[in-house]
Each structure stands twice: as C-alpha cells, then as structure tokens.
Write a structure and sequence with these properties.
This protein is of the alpha/beta class and 343 residues long. It has a domain of 232 residues: 3-Layer(aba) Sandwich (Rossmann fold). Helix content is 37%, strand content 19%. It has a seven-stranded parallel beta sheet, sandwiched between helices. Helix 6 crosses helix 10. The radius of gyration is 20 Å and the shape is globular. It starts with a strand and ends with a helix.
Length: 343
C-alpha cells in the first residue's frame, strides 16, 4: 500500500518541492490550493497530470485554511496518513498590511486542521506537520535553538507562534502525532517573486541583460541563516518518520547579511559591487562602469526589524539524522541559473 500525504499550500515553494520528494518516495500526494481566477499552479505544472489520465499520484483540491468545513471534507475524502501544513500568508512585510487575514490563515488555519483531526477521531491514523518559522525568535540572542525564548516581532511571527503552541497543545491534550518544524530561511528556484532573495537574483540577472537599471532594497544589514529549500523539505519528511512527535529546528548554523547576498549574486554574474554613502543614501555601484545599480528605499523596511536569525540544529542532526547538503553558494548559483533561463 502506498502512503497517502495531504499538503496544504502545495502551490508554494515548499509545497511544490515536498510534493516532488514524496512522489519520488512513491506516495500518493493530495494537494490543497486556493481558488483563483488565474492559474496559480506554475510550480507543479510539470508533475501534475489531468484527473482523466490513469495512474496519477498527484491530485489537487480547492480549499482554504479559513474554511473549517472545507478542511474537514478534504481530510475525510483523501484519508491521509501524513498532513503537512505549509499554507500561510508567509510574507513578513505584508503581514503588517494584512494582520487580520494573516492571523486567520496562519494561526487559526492550523487550529482548524488540528480540530478536524480531533473531530474525525483520526489521532491514531494521521501524523501532522506544522511549518513553524525562525521569525518567532525575533530579537532573541543567536544562535537560536529549541529552548530559545520566542520574541515575535511581526503579525506573521505572532500568528505562527500561536500555530506552533496550539500544535504542542493538541499533541499534549489529545495525544495527536503533531510536530513542529522551526525552519530558518530557505530559498530555491521556486521562491516567490516578492521575497528578497528572489528579488535580488531576478534584478541582478535583468541588470546584466540590460532589462533593468536599479535594484531597490531595504535593510542591507539584516542577517539570516539561509539554506536550500530542497534540503528543508527532506527535513519535514524526516520529522514525520519519527516514532515520537516533537519540535525540531532546521538551519545551517551560518549567517549571511542581505548585503552579502547581493554581493555574491552580482559577483557570480561578473559584477563587483562597491558601496558608497550611509543609511538611506547608501548605494551599490557597478565597479565595471561606475553605474549605481543598488539603492535603498525606506518603504522596504519593516515597522519592526529583526536583525539576526542564526540557528543551532544539533537536535535535528542527532534525532532525525538531518544535515544540510546544499551550500549557500550553490543555492545562489542554482537560483541564478534558473532565473537566467526564465528572464
């Protein structure tokens, strides 16, 4: 019998990569996607087959984490052994502009899935994975681990913290196999266009191709622990293969600033960046021709900045036997390669 998995958020970066991983492991994969008037399945089009074709192991369902009856119906219909909740309003800056929706989808959405498992009395049949985030740590001193104090600094982080704790609560109260993966920043070719890493790579490629003149950014000095999403979805799967549920931090243990990400990306495309000025007037200059190609825009700063997030994943290395395989350098190279073909 093939294992059956249900992925909420299958059309996102992590969902699409996890679907690929599970299909390779011979799972039947059900994915939940939101209804849209435009096609939003770009990341999974190459692995999705029409329902009328035989032997398809990937099936899609319309759904939304704000609709509890829909969630219950999908779980009843698909009968999964594993549920991965990767769906969320996941943009930190946007969460300040849509705080209520962010709370509804990211916090209460997780509760609705857990309630569905409880109401349907499936606690002995389903393993549940909740995608937590390093943003929950906020200003806590790095390196952060599973015992570090949470100090969320955005509506997104606060909503995710609720989801994290309600997962722990249902695990304790109802004996549900419910695990949290506290994932630090992870990127790939499938990263959305509005995220800073994808924005940097896309702009750098376009500047080299003379399709764009300037890249506008916010806080250049923010430091993040960036890993490759292909490694991180493997960690998600490993977390649900354990005999006991728990909370696991997933990170590389190495921090890089947005400035370093910019420098490395442009360097790989043959451009060395020179920095000039300070604060909002700082600019990045192409050393080949002295043209300004990076500028600061105050609109891209968050109301609350999180300066440093770097994780300690020793627990995950020891218990789930996970280590990152793809380096920061290789991750950027792969993102550039994909973007160069697309642009």
């Amino acid at each position: 019998m093939k294992k059956v998995a249900l992925i909420f958020g299958i059309t996102g970066q992590d969902g699409s990569l996890l679907a690929r991983l599970l299909l390779k492991k011979n799972y039947i994969v059900h994915g939940v996607k939101r209804r849209s008037s435009s096609f939003n399945t770009e990341r999974i089009d190459d692995i999705y087959k029409d329902l009328h074709e035989r032997n398809t192991n990937l099936l899609l369902h319309y759904g939304d984490l704000t609709d509890s009856t829909n969630i219950i119906s999908i779980i009843q219909k698909t009968k999964p052994q594993e549920i991965y909740n990767l769906a969320a309003q996941s943009h930190v800056k946007v969460s300040f502009e849509t705080p209520e929706y962010t709370a509804n989808a990211d916090a209460l959405g997780t509760l609705r899935i857990l309630e569905a498992i409880r109401i349907l009395n499936l606690k002995n049949k389903i393993k549940f994975y909740q995608a937590s985030t390093s943003e929950m740590f906020g200003d806590s001193k790095p390196p952060q681990n599973e015992k570090t104090e949470f100090k969320p600094n955005s509506p997104y982080a606060v909503a995710k913290l609720y989801a994290h704790w309600i997962t722990k609560s249902y695990r304790s109260a109802y004996n549900i196999f419910a695990s949290n993966g506290v994932l630090f920043n992870h990127e790939s070719y499938a990263r959305g266009e509005t995220f800073v890493t994808k924005k940097i790579v896309a702009a750098a490629v376009n500047i080299v191709k003379k399709k764009q003149k300037v890249l506008y950014l916010g806080n250049l000095n923010a430091i993040r622990d960036w890993g490759d999403a292909r490694d991180y979805v493997e960690a998600m799967w490993k977390i649900l293969q354990q005999k006991k549920p728990g909370d696991f931090l997933v990170s590389t243990g190495k921090g890089h600033s947005v400035r370093q990400f910019v420098e490395k990306t442009f360097y790989k495309l043959g451009i060395k960046i020179k920095w000039r000025g300070i604060g909002l007037k700082e600019v990045g200059i192409n050393s080949n021709n002295n043209q300004i190609i990076v500028k600061i825009d105050k609109r891209y700063f968050r109301p609350n900045e999180v300066n440093i997030l770097v994780g300690n994943s020793l627990k995950s290395q020891k218990i789930i036997k996970w280590k990152p395989k793809i380096s920061f350098d290789q991750m950027i190279t792969d993102m550039i390669s994909y973007q160069s073909k697309k642009s």
